[in-house]
Protein 1
Amino acid sequence: MVANTSLWPLRLQVKCEVRARIPMNNGGEIFIHLYSNNIDNKEHLAIVFGELIRSRSLDAPREDDTEWSRMVRGAYSGRLYPGRTVSSSPLPHSDSPATPSSSNQLPLDSIPLVRIHSECYTGETAWSARCDCGEQLDEAARLMALEGAGVVVYLRQEGRGIGLAEKLKAYNLQDLGNDTVTANLLLRHPADARSYGLATAILQDLGLSTIRLLTNNPIKVAAVEGPNKEVKVAERVPMVPLAWKGLKGGVTGKELDEYLKTKINRMGHLLPEPNH
Ligand SMILES: Nc1nc2c(ncn2[C@@H]2O[C@H](COP(=O)(O)OP(=O)(O)OP(=O)(O)O)[C@@H](O)[C@H]2O)c(=O)[nH]1
């Protein structure tokens, strides 16, 4: 079974292929969901905090399902432990902590935090100080861990959708004196080539019809809601760079300040500039 959303003119289908529990250093846990879809061949992800947000397409019975295949793809309730044989209603086991069953849901009055994050190899893996992507991913995760619930939808839209190779060319054009928008345009790309229909479909698959969205980007808010308000953004939560809040541990530098100022001045981002 797949989650269908009719985001005209596209008919998006997403299916959660596999899910796994990932313990973290701080004692918390996240669940990585890997999605397939009928729009591109990329592996988009949902990083889910807490056990109460579940994928409908993952849990739905599939042709040729067995107890074993359900456990291997992550469609089980409770915890896996050596020797477990059934995917649902785990029998009490001395080594397995008591956990909620798959029938549990988020309380109605809790609106989960969501971050729609676009892939950024340079910021997340190579610790680039040209952007705040790595910091934003960390900060979103920190806030969701504090609340015990939330989702980072991790879209494989590197370089605002132009891909890593083109983004690296854009960086060279930036060093030649162009801002991040002009650099894209000089390469004959749009300033922002991303779309968010898959994010909307993933949120629907996770049963999230109302969210609080971590972003400064007004286009992202409107786009993720979908043409028929398939998802409602009840609140936009700003992502202010740590350095702009006078806090330590964030990205700093001339390149970052120019990148953020261009987002404010040319892309309409809702981010108050620092007073310094
Ligand atoms: N083309 C291009 N892409 C960049 C540049 N710097 C970062 N990116 C990409 O921009 C994307 C980051 O976007 P997001 O973190 O979703 O940020 P946003 O849409 O600008 O808005 P926020 O939600 O407020 O963070 C990632 O795909 C990065 O790879 C750049 O200079 N040029």
Protein 2
Amino acid sequence: MNDYVIHTEALSLSYRGKQALDNLSLRLARGGVHAIVGANGAGKSTLFRVLLGFACADSGSAAVLGCDSRALGPALRARIGFVNEEHTLPTWMRVEELAAMQRRLYPGWSQERYRQVLVNFNVADRQKIAELSRGERAGVSLALALAQGPELLILDEPTLGLDVVAKRAFLDALLQTSLDDGATVVYCSHQMEEIERVADNLVIMERGVLRHMSPPGEFCERVALWIADFPFRQPSSADLSAHLPGVLEMRVIDGLTHLVVFDGGEDFGARLRLMGARSCQSMPVSLDRAVNGFLARGHAGASPLSAAA
Ligand SMILES: Nc1ncnc2c1ncn2[C@@H]1O[C@H](COP(=O)(O)OP(=O)(O)OP(=O)(O)O)[C@@H](O)[C@H]1O
């Protein structure tokens, strides 16, 4: 018996020949906030669909809270909160009717949590869902999901389209749900500053494959920006690839070579000097730059050093 809230083994799914999940083996431990990132089309939403039993994999296995995703019954579904990026809700219902219905359905319902999230949106209880703006609808669906008191919360780009204040309030409530109620949160997002703030675990997917998993800080520590001054001959992208390990991205700015490097090793500076650098220095990068550099390397249409001058 393991304690993974999500466990996939060699999970594959292709849509008419297009590989969305490619032999994906992923184990997410119980507790904390897990953020899944990846370029557009990396397979994040597809993974969620398979996990929740909305789509069938071609091969491999997927389990949520220890149960095969193909056999999730009502009792198990009640332990999982899910918010999709469209924030699908019954448009004909009034906000108060929807909240009352959910309160009856979920024994762990927290009215306080519901109000805590919803207060940041200008939503009147008597309004119909159809009358709400997109952001307000997102606010209602997020308030409902957090108030359900789920054991596992799966969120597909939950803050897309929210303004800064609403986003912050939602993230605070999310953290509190995870800390106070012990809920495990699994969510995908393209917003790194948000992930930096809330995530305990960073999962990077690329074209249906798991590329990296660690705490965000650990990932950042493995990526560095090197700035080197080559006074005579600027090395080409090909030179760099051949002689330096882990170069993700190269740019020449004001005559200085900027390299984003993953696992460059202790002697990276010495290697730069051997290639003719007069001086060089390394500095840390933000999560945004680290992840984007990492993903740019394998991005469709981009060569490994696509940003090279
Ligand atoms: N119903 C479908 N029919 C055909 N192809 C699909 C379908 N759904 C997804 N795909 C393809 O599967 C791949 C993975 O899509 P998915 O929506 O899972 O990516 P994603 O990581 O969630 O992307 P984004 O960040 O853009 O939301 C993409 O190449 C997409 O074009």
Protein 3
Amino acid sequence: MTLDRPVRIIGAPSDYGANRRGVDMGPSAIRYAGLAEELEAMGLETTDEDDLPIPRAETRDPDVEQLRSGNAKFLRETREVCEALEARVADAIEAGMFPLVLGGDHSIAIGSLNGAGKNADVGAIWFDAHGDFNTPETSPSGNVHGMPLAAALGRGAFAEEPWASENRLREENVVYVGLRSVDDHERDAINASEMTAFTMSDIDERGIGPVVEDALDAATAGVDGIHVSFDMDWLDPNEAPGVGTPVRGGSSYREAHSALELVAERHASEGVLRSMELVEVNPILDSHNQTADLAVELAASALGKRIL
Ligand SMILES: NC(=[NH2+])NCCC[C@H](N)C(=O)O
Ligand SMILES: [Mn+2]
Ligand SMILES: [Mn+2]
């Protein structure tokens, strides 16, 4: 049941897209929590590349770049990071490996999605408290980690090259699971889009199993594979305190394992997984590396670890 290909860990310690420092230490914290050791213990061949080289934010000018009418901080830097990440993800897939990307804030998903969707039609499952579907025109914060899905789908100011580059991410195969914090403009944009959105209320009513099965059906229909984007703030802050934008009422520890076990099972039967990322771990805000430990456990479940 474990994943059918070697794993390549790719660290993307960017915090250009977040309001708070600290997520740049996410890859270190997740490695320290024993990610590679855990995957190897599962029998997975695992390589761990050097992190992407990312200059510290203090050495750069946030330069609220006026892209059309909007605002977004560190856009130029974010674009550089995401172009480099796109190449790494695409290379890993081409080499027959499974890219497991460690953030960093969620803006790095632009690179992951562009890489995963480079030569294939792809869907995505977005486990997140947030919609991350703002554009520079609608963002209340100017933080690009609230915009990666809009960027990868070429919305608003991101219609300009090379944000969505040539990715073949299909909007109708993008699926949210567990949304609970959405800005007003974002709500309108999500409702008007072709994406599918399951909120925490859907999980309350139906249970995690049926929701994730439906999400997998919608994400995988007619595509070559899917990218799983996992924002640690999807979990309740009691479980995952080490995140920059915590929101009450998130998924439980068991729901998170269960969701990712279902992803692994679908992969075992249909070979759907193409790439995954774990983002928004902020060790400064964490308690004894609890959130990074949890990220390791959840990666293992997604890649096929079982209790028995
Ligand atoms: N990846 C995240 N943690 N995103 C939080 C986004 C928060 C808010 N919606 C914003 O756009 O600023
Ligand atoms: Mn997010
Ligand atoms: Mn989030």
